[in-house]
Amino acid sequence: MNRFENKTVLITGGTSGFALEAAKTIANEGGRVAVTGHSDDHLEDARKALPEGSLVLKNDASDPGAVADLAKAVREKWDGIDGLWLNAGYGKFRPNQKNDAHFFDQMMNTNVREPVLQMAELMDDIKDGGAVLLSASVAPYLGQAQGAV
């Protein structure tokens, strides 16, 4: 079955975990895929796991300047995308009493600000009939209060 034939999907935070598995499925089912990440090890793993022609981009979801770089890289390769999965996220667990402004800003920048900015920058690149998927944390559902910073 080639559900993704002639489809192009960008997955932020797609260099590991279930997002990388999804990227492999998309590619195996005829799609073109781009994934982003910031860990050199995960980027290398994704390059090995995905077929030639896939985009594996180093992109820090906490850096507001990275949004333009991401959009430029995708536009240079493709004439639009059919799917945008905003999956990049950050979680670090420690006692709430240890939270400070820097820690809070880092989490908010990665998990809230950047997906909003990425979506704003890339909306015009989504083809008619395309879709946007936003991932969110499961921490509140698992009773991980530290994850709900």
CATH structural architecture? 3-Layer(aba) Sandwich
Number of helices: 4
Helical amount among residues, as a percent range?
25-40%
Count of domain modules: 1
Mind telling me the CATH class?
A: Alpha Beta
Give start-end ranges of low-pLDDT stretches. none
Spatial separation of the terminal alpha carbons: 41 Å
Which of globular, elongated, flat, extended, rod-shaped describes the shape? Answer: globular
What is the radius of gyration computed over CA atoms, rounded to a whole number of angstroms? 16 Å
Mean pLDDT: 90
Q: Could you name the key traits of this structure?
A:
single chain; 149 residues; alpha/beta; Rossmann fold; 5-stranded parallel sheet; 4 helices; 20% strand
Describe this structure in words.
With 149 residues, the chain is α/β, with parallel strands linked by helices. The mean pLDDT is 90. It is built from 4 helices and 5 strands, in the order βαβαβαβαβ. Helix 3 runs parallel beside helix 4. A 5-stranded parallel beta sheet has the order 3-2-1-4-5, sandwiched between helices. It has a single domain (8-138), classed as NAD(P)-binding Rossmann-like Domain (Rossmann fold, 3-Layer(aba) Sandwich), CATH 3.40.50.720. 30% of the residues are buried. Helix content is 38%, strand content 20%.
